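A further point concerns the way the authors explain their paired sequence and structure data. Since the whole study asks how a given chain folds, the encoding of that fold should be made plain. A single example would do more here than another paragraph of explanation. An entry of this sort, consisting of the sequence and the corresponding backbone structure tokens, reads as follows:

_____
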Amino acid sequence: MKYVVANWKMNLGVRESIALARGVLRAIQGHDQLPQIVVCPSATALSEVHKLLTRSHVLLGAQNAGPDKSGAFTGEIGLSQLDEVGCTFVIVGHSERRVHFHETDAVVAERLRAVVSAGLTPILCVGEPKDIRDSGKETAYVLRQLSSALADLKLSRNQKLLVAYEPIWAIGSGTPAALKDVLVMHESIRKFLQEDLHLSDERFAVLYGGSIEGKNAYQFLRESEVDGLLVGGASLKINEFTKILEAACDVVEAQASV
């Protein structure tokens, strides 16, 4: 299984989100084998986009979630609210949340546990800043993020954990991380999940994100260590995102024929 997750961030209104979701549905028409596609609109568009995606192969995700189901938490998005509008995935700990909104490792862990307890599938984001990469300590940094976030996490038997490796210095830069570096990091993340969290391969997926475009998507997706992509800016341009989806479909179809 390959995943393609579209993070639209705070970019589109409701009408624009609906139009883009329609474009995604058109892009996958005619394909017999599909990756698991997840679109993550702004909170204001979740309900309307869900109506459009019902009975399609595209699932709905949220970009964030509060650690509580409901209550006096002004500005937060409750997990029961996300469930009500049809969300099945939630992005947790994106670097923009960590940097701009000062979400600590402890906050990320709390949100992650809440998402899992609500029965939703988390997409946990991890990744190092440039100074850490330059110092050669990126693996230790990412594994510390994982260890903190996953401490005492209890997945139900049927739940899956998605981990998205997004090096902060690559996001929005136009230059993705070198493939060889991504593969090394994915291998380290996979080993950690297997040995420290005791998860079997079918219980988790490791995605890459950071300046993914139509021209480079295939080189990542074809690698067995890369279970999918978390796409930011390119997912807002339907022509570009269509190329990414086509690359994913090509890989999935090739795997199915083996």
